[in-house]
Amino acid sequence: MDKVCAMGSGSxxxxxxxxxxxxxxxxxxxxxxxxRFHSYEDGNLDVMAVEELDAATNALACRLYxxxxxSGDWEYPxxxxxxxxxxxxxxxxxxxxxxxxxxxxxxxxIGGSAIHSTEPLLEYFPNAKVTxxxxxxxxxxxxxxxxxxxxxxxxxxxxxxxxxxxxxxxPNGSVDLVCASFLxxxxxxxxxxxxxxxxxxxxxxxxxxxxxxxxxxHDAKIPKLVLGMHYLTEPWKGQYSKLDVQALLEELGFVDxxxxxxxxxxxxxxxxxxx
Length: 275
Fold this sequence. Notes:
Order of helices and strands: HHHHHEHEHEEHEHHHHEE
Number of strands: 7
Strand content: 15-25%
Shape: globular
Helix content: 40-55%
Largest sheet: 7 strands, mixed
Oligomer: single chain
Radius of gyration: 18 Å
């Protein structure tokens, strides 16, 4: 785990200071966000959620690349990097087919928390600046510390906000690309609809939306008992699995909606705002 998460390293005081600096006291946390989540009593506002964030993030990829990890060829962060790379390649392929802003300058990373998804975006789009939007100030504080360590703060802005109300912070038609990684399955359907509507408003004409998340086709193959255990820690996963994302995006006004499986567990959802 990253040094900034280590207990007793002196990092706690730094994280608290950063959290205080970026917390927006006017944020009204939705009820779903305050519920027990991922086995944490306070969900993504729980201190333990911050301490275990790196491990939880790396776990997304570890089973996909278990042979490489077991053999010692890769470590957990390398597997996570490969997973992010697959998503970015989907974005690049989509842009070559459907256009959009090929070299985005302004990107929103929704639910970007501690910049696990943000850093690959910055590498893939070297001329871009990214605004990380997250409801957890604790996650954002970790992102600030990590961004400072890696010399990335000149290219990242951190926004403590609810993505269901982006228009309160982001001018309409000002963004080249909106991304969200492993967010939708953590939202009730109503929140997903509000977020996607706001994303459409924020995008410039022709600009793109790129989402990666669990593939419901894979989840349907999971034994019911195991899946039921997932639902205990992921209370909105059932709603996500039943949601027709393509139909919703088209209903909201997105065009050229494409959904591709990127590996056996995950998919990419890509669309753009009309020209």
